[in-house]
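Technical appendix A lists one of the benchmark inputs used to test multi-chain prediction within the project. The record comprises two sequence entries:
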Amino acid sequence: MPAIEIKSLGKTYKGNNRPAIADLSLSIDEGEIFGLLGPNGAGKTTLIHILCCIQTFDFGEVSILGLHLPRRIMDIKPLIGVAPQDIALYPTLTAMENLRVIGGIFGMKRKAVEERATELLDRFGLAANKNRRIDTYSGGMKRRVNLIAALMHRPRIIFLDEPTVGIDVQSKIMILDSLKDINRDGCTIIYTSHYMEEAENLCTRVGIIDEGHILQSGHPCDLVRSSGCASLENLYLQLTGKTLRDDT
Amino acid sequence: MIRKLFSLIYKDILLLLRDKAGLSMMFIMPMLLVVLMTKLQDSTFNSINETQIPLALLNLDTDSLGNAIERQLSSSGIFSITRSASTSDDASEKLKASVARGDRMVGIIIPAKATENIRNNIRRYVSTAFNGTVASPVTPDTVHIEIYIDPVVKTSFRSTLMSALREQAARTESEFLSQAIVAEVNRYFPISISGINISPSLVSFSEQYALPTKDAVIPNSTQHNIPAWSLFAVFFISISLSGNIIKEREDGSYLRLLTMPCPEVLYMLSKATVYMLVCLLQYAVIFLMGVFLLPSLGLPAFALQGALPLSLVMAVSSASAAISYGIAIGKLAGTHQQAAIFASISTVIMAALGGIWIPVFVMPPLMKYAAALSPLNWGIEGFYDIFIRGGNLLSILPECAASFIFSALCIIAAPLLHRRKKHRTR
């Protein structure tokens, strides 16, 4: 059973003539690390938001782990974890308090929340700072807690929207290594990024998206080889062009 | 579901406790307002002993009428009287000037021989009547009391003063009339009669507040200000609550909640529960302050007089209106600034309309209709029913119902309007 199955998906924002997602079809298998690559305004965030149950769509079919959106939305939500691009935490609460709230909303028991939070904070090198308020954390620390929050309830799929943007190299390496570990445990990862090299190293498959369509998808090495380009970045530029996308 | 709700409540309590400035504003500001406004309004509600009106009196008569007027003015307790001893011509000019300057708000000049002139007039009329002849066309000795009033003095007060002076003049005249009649009768009858005492106490007036029970409390500044400013404080919570909702939206944490199995109704229920506790705490703190602190400041103590259960019903209904209002603003406002400005200004307007500062009964008719639309008016009227009119559950039912209906409308309309707004901007 595919983790995600999308058929002829369409979404146009009110007041826009151009669709954000236009007749997009995609299938992602369980256990994959799927990289969604594309320039600004290509439709990455809209697609992720639809899959995270934040955004509605106009037409098409979306099923997550065999459950159809939007009908089974409340059954889907416990199966997915989301680390949005912007830090989505309560800045005046400590890391531990944030994780307690998130675990509780996922229906986890208090003891399970404490154990899971301690385990993840330890794994991401934040155990010593677990009782510090989020607004006193560095950018890298915040990104790590943002990711931990998505992992608290052991989701089967996690969505990561640019999880390594604006952080130091050490934090980036830790996050990417941890993602590989999490994937080894059986978790499917859907990930967006502007860093081609990072995607090439991390993903088992990438999809290049522009103007609401998936232009190409496949294993990064296979895509590079079949296109005759020197790198994934060259292929990306060949497909999406060099025009600046400042208007979106 | 309960675990989810508890987690949300835990989060909302922590968010509130971490906002120390906001929290202190919720309690310290209304407490200061209560003390300040109660102190300011105390003299108005109390007997007006403390707000004496400066009055200049030039009594050139120094006989029955002049002395009676002087006595009445002194005993009223309303005036702080400055008596002019001078009988010189410029004494009256000085008195007029002092009123014109605003040094005195009222100036009264009782002319010389005022009593004698009244006595002469009455004697002449009675004598004419008893002789059986038509009185010769006599020009009466007029008595003209001059009253100067500062233009800032209210018309109602001016009317009261004039009535009091007229009453005193009439009383003096009737006394003289009775004396003159007795004197004439004694001239014609062999057996003399004693003086007729026309006592003003034959018709007495009993003034009291229309209170339903013997235990009901006479209105005072504390009984008004404690519930009034508690309500104001409770409605000011809409600033903090709407700000809290918008902050969650802006810092992205609300977005995360949307990705979690957390129904919107639980999110709102959590906020409502936490802020309801805050509102009830506000009521408790301010009410206790009225009971224990205000008497030590020389103000009347707040009399709860066994109305705690009713107060709780009224507190819950008014707090629910305030909380729903805050949630609606939080859902509909685009930014924190928008919400803060709208919530504070609208609360002040609703308070002004609702009779928190100025009683509704002194408002013009149109404003009275508008007052009936203010949730703060429903609250204050409900508390008046409890604390001043000694009402029961039935008497506060209309106000409670209005508050709960308002609450329900806000809660239902806000998400619908929010969704419509989101659709428009997408």
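Residues 49-202 of chain B form a domain with the abc type-2 transporter like fold fold (CATH 3.40.1710). The radius of gyration of chain B is 32 Å. Comparable benchmark entries are summarised in Table A2.
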